[in-house]
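Sample log: Orphan G-protein coupled receptor 21.
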Amino acid sequence: MDAAVSMVMALDNNSMDLQDGGQDGLQDVSTIAMMPDEGGSSIPTDRIPFVVFGCVGIIGNLIVILTLGSKYELRRKIINMFVINQSIVDMLASLTLMLFAITLPSDRKSIGISGEFYCKLWVSAVLLWSLYVTSTYNILGMTVERYLKIVHPFWYKRFYHKRHAIIGIALAWGFSFAFNFALTVPTTVIDEDYNCLSMGKWPSITHARAAGIITVIVELFIPLIILILCYGGIVVMLRRNMDTTTSDNLAASGASQQRDKTINAAYRNTIKTLALVAIVYVICWTGNQVYFLMYNLGYNLCWCGPIYIIETNLVNANSCLNPFIYAFTYNDFKKRFRAIIGLKQQDSGGSVSGTTKVTSVSQSVEMSTSNNKASE
């Protein structure tokens, strides 16, 4: 369960106390799904999916990092900087999720300074939630980079450099952690019985619900709007370019046609991969965020039914799905991974694809140019 859901439980358990004039509005919400039952000695059944998602996410994302990072030509590409960072974030999120599932403290009492840090930084799930949001905004960074390169190519070539990608990555990390820490740490407290109350203290229900609505806006609506606008612009531009390329190819040489075809195919492959990543994100996150929004709008919802369990597991699964998308669709990853394990990537005609094909096209163009000069 994420920090947003912890807030929901705090509100749900706490609403009567606040309305009836409770002093602090404190309730013990540390019994989140990823925390163990009192005195438990094994991982509860409902947390086994967290362990599975964590293990798969760690292994899958580590493979992506090692594969794309093993070759200088790949890791220096701006888009692959985002992909590698995405895998780092998702791997850390998967590791954190698994640690939540297997952590089995004897009790949830938090005493002293160390207990307060444990309560605010671990029981509150602020680290996990911050990594999830970092992953979201890194996807936005990848999408905006592709949008600028395809829709505004001249501006991109002149102004967009590697340092801008690094700045974008740093902003995704900084904003996500700052937002979640500001929301979670001040509202997570320890009561007089030393129980950790994750996001359990709010000035009023109005403040808590306002924070919940802002959370949904930041974590769902803003990313969704940016994704729709960017991919809409990309689709329009690619269709326009296809029409232009078709008319231009009527008068172009065979080598030039092949070169344009190869470049367009590379663009389409990258866009298809990133679009799938974005679609999976929307599928995994929409249910959780809509559920949370409905609560903050006043609906009386169940936080233990099958719908809630499914949408929570979808959020947790998101971090381990991206490596499978890269493995099946992303040519940079597929070619490099095949090279690492000793296989060659070939197209349907039996010729080596990818960089070799581009090189052959370039060589053909150069030979054609040289022959023309010689004939002159």
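Observation: The beta strands are 189-190, 196-197.
Observation: The chain is about 75% helix and 0% strand.
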